Amino acid sequence: STLASPLLDVRGVTVRFGGLTALDAVSFEVRQGEILALIGPNGAGKSTMIGVVSGARAPDTGSVRFAGEDVSVRNAAQRSRLGIARTFQSAEVLRSLSVLENVMAAAYARHGSGFVAGLLGARSAHGSAARMRELALAQLELVGLTALAAQPAGLLTAGQQRLLAVARGLATEARLLILDEPAAGLNATEKHTLSRLIQQIRGRGTTIMFVEHDLAFVGRLADRMVVLDHGRLLAQGEPDEVRADPAVVAAYLGN
Ligand code: ADP
Ligand code: MG
User: Fold this and answer.
1) How far away, in angstroms, is 115 Cα from ligand 1 center?
2) pTM score of the predicted model
3) What single string gives the DSSP state of each residue in 93-156?
4) For the domain 1-83+174-183+206-255, what is the CATH code?
5) What is the whole-number distance in angstroms between the Cα of residue 47 and the centre of ligand 2?
6) Distance 228 CA to ligand 2 centre (A)
7) Ion ligand 2: residues, Cβ under 5 Å
8) Tens-digit pLDDT profile for residues 192-238
9) Ranges of CATH 3.40.50.300 domains, the chain
10) Is ipTM over 0.95?
């Protein structure tokens, strides 16, 4: 229903770095079950906004509500437990751990203590460790990295590391998965895989917010777009209307 409250509600968020206003009173919503693209030229404030939503950075003003709760006072670990997961602009893999261990490590971050007890041999937690492994394997299957599960993550190509970062986000069983430039550095085939993957993830009920530069890629994938420019909200709406917006065209041409 259009009356349903949004999953994420960002209100009047301002972030300043010294004299620079990286985000200037930005408000937008992410609806339950949608794929929302956050776009804008370099330096627009996209990564800063992801930091504010995930709890990595406290805004100077404004609030973030998630699933009806004001999470502004909650830190990143608490927000992760509530169901907000993010990947970083630079794919962050633990290079010496195996691909499977990378995904399992991400799963502990949310479901943590039971797994650690499992490692220490506590019998009651054994089921939890097995479940974590199963959960991790299922995410690798989804992103197409099953065959590389035992490889050290450092041996993966850049594109494979980005897919691994997505699998790590998925392993937290997040309600909101935030991806910062997941398609950066991917070749055409990998971009296609990523695009299908994002649709599959949404298909199983996860809401997605992703940052992207490539307007054509975004237009095919997103239900709605939010455009930032120099820290201000420039436009928002469905891809066709946003891409035709003269202010958006000007911001991109001027870049
Ligand atoms: P985007 O992800 O859209 O490219 P960012 O959110 O990374 O943009 O950056 C927005 C602006 O804030 C840029 O001008 C950037 O240089 C500045 N900025 C980002 N992080 C910091 C920081 N930690 N300290 C100072 N300035 C920053
Ligand atoms: Mg960025």
Assistant:
1) 36
2) 0.88
3) --TTSBHHHHHHHHHHHHHHHHHHHHHTT-GGGHHHHHHHHHHHHHHHHHHT-GGGTTSBGGGS
4) 3.40.50.300
5) 4
6) 11
7) 46-47
8) 888 999 999 999 899 999 998 777 888 889 999 999 999 999 999 99
9) 1-83+174-183+206-255
10) yes
